[in-house]
Task: structure prediction
Amino acid sequence: MSFISLTGFTIKDNFVFYYNNIMEEQILDVTQIEPRLKHKTIFDLFDNIQGGESFIINNDHDPKPLYYQLNAEKPEQFTWQYLENGPETWKVRIGKPAEQAPEKSIGEIVAGNYRTAQVFKSFGIDFCCGGKKRPSEVCAQKGLDLDELMQSLAVVEGQTQDRHNDFSNWDLGFLCDYVVNTHHRYVAENTQFIYELAHKVARVHGPGHPELVEIARIYSELVPDLQKHFALEEAELFPYIKRLSEKAKAGEKVETGKLDLKAIIEKVEGDHDEAGNALRNIRDLSSNYSLPEGACASYTILFKKLEEFEDDLHQHVHIENNIIIPKALATEQRLASNK
Result:
């Protein structure tokens, strides 16, 4: 295929391409092309442009048949804009839409800006155990307005982040210690109080509010499961991750055969899902922690503590699922590839 470069235009296989110097846009004079080759030439040119680019065709009649062919063969893959619409000359700008970045998961959004967690919570969206889902997917499932959600997120994204709690930039080993010293400790210090309060309120108010009995039962089953979960993390998962972090800093090789990281992460994430489901059931049973008229002090404190407990667990699981675990897997893979 031959090219003759001239000022302002190029001749390519006897087809004339002019160049719009302002737009850096090719202008194809279709009237100079043999009829049987017109559409083929235009399609070839279209296939060779990138997302966000375009070209202009000049023709002596409305190229509507070309539009129908493009629409049949490349639906939703092109843009069509009349620049001149007869009666002697028709000019159409044909382009490819700019490629959009893949939609981030909820967990990725929160990991990038922890303030967005409050937005997701206000919409009733689980940002920890449901962190792998996309906003569009969750909105479709829950019947939520995606545009409204994205606008609310945009407002938060425009705010300055507090670097003190920008977990995604914290050291991996330090994050593990933070989870133990903040979230594991919170559960340890509050579990017995909530447990006793839940059973007291269920005993006193259960006859009139049977949902309180079920709430006490669910919480009673959740507590020992969390304790086993924390023991696994503190004895096996976190020490291994901290060793990975230290080896990465020192540029050393990873220890092989010490721990099946993927297997233990699968167990940990399964525990997170179960805990999230338990607390979701408690929230549903309590109608989002709505107190009945005349609720006593114990009743009121119980619901406030359960909501606080849920908030803490959401933040806790978010840090592990969306920050610690992806970083640990990436670090192990990087170190393993350096063998």
Q: What stands out?
A: The CA atoms of residues 157 and 285 lie 33 Å apart.
